[in-house]
User: Fold this.
Amino acid sequence: MKKIIVSFLVCVLSSLSFAYHIGVVSGTVSQSEDSLRGAEAIMEKYGPADKGGKVVHITYPDNFMQEMETTISQIVSLADDPEMKAVIMTEAIPGTVEAFRRIRAKRPDILLVANTAHEDPDMVADVADLALYPDDIIRGYTIVKAAQMMGAKKFMHISFPRHLSYELISRRRNIMEAVAKDLGMEFIDTSAPDPVSDVGVAGAQQYILEQVPNWVKKYGKDIAFFTTNDAHTEPLLKRVSEEGGYFVEADMPSPTIGYPGALGIKFDDSEKGNWPAILKKVEKAVIEKGGAGRMGTWSYSYNFSTATALGDHVVNVLEGKCDILDFDGVMSALQNSTSGAGWNGNYLIDADGVERDNYILIYQDTYVFGKGYLHMTDLEVPKKYLDIQ
Assistant:
């Protein structure tokens, strides 16, 4: 009888130790659908807190730049829940740093996790327990190398001054130029209208629609295009499928970035969040348009897969299975959420040359429609490119 009572008490205490909530903050379907779907997947797996589960999910305003104080207050309000033990920003928009500072002052016991941070990496690393971001430094090499492997002999980088003022985007561009030169590829630097300028998204997209045929005519069909902006991606993909050329992957890669609108692809409710099914449907459309071997992506959305992986990692940390800074734990969570896709990653080296072990830069293997994975995550990137500023 005593053994039964002791066993029962151990079970009760164990369950009590795992009684916690996780706050998950995402955009709305109109602002950032993939991160929203990732947040919903976390809640589906671990259950909503108001129904006995672990997850409290909130969305920030679409116009978060104009409503920053409201956004910050919403994030900080999660700390009012006495059972809250972690906050995950599926896309750490501006205001996250200040929100994390306020939570840290109020509840130092809460783990703070930032994905795809929009703010200065050093500032984010100073306030977050863990941050993830696409490895734009490594991708400066892998994207150009992949273009060459696909058959391109020229590489066009399309951007605008606002984006090029961002440190990581500017460094990636400079690395791309150096890699292209070393691989014997012509590098073409091109400016396009900023979608947040007076011309708006429609004007910026119209410019791309009009210019791609001219660029293909001028430079030939053995040119690979890369743009730093998602709004440019859809018209670029549309014209590449029609006119020729190559497209390795988007700035924030996903089968749902650009391809559905460019190729007229519709997904039903059963396919949303089902990335193998989404990839298969996009691949079929690309091949029908003659883009096999010329157009690629990451097979799993970055914002979706990192959101779900961070949810799993945080649960593992809170349940004592690993430490928040366990690099292998993070990579394992990514692999588990993206069957078949390769991942690799590195720690951020800040402006002072200091390695930040709580800020991990990651990248996924490139998938070429009609061809398969290129195994870019297996390549060793020459160190000389990583030193380019």
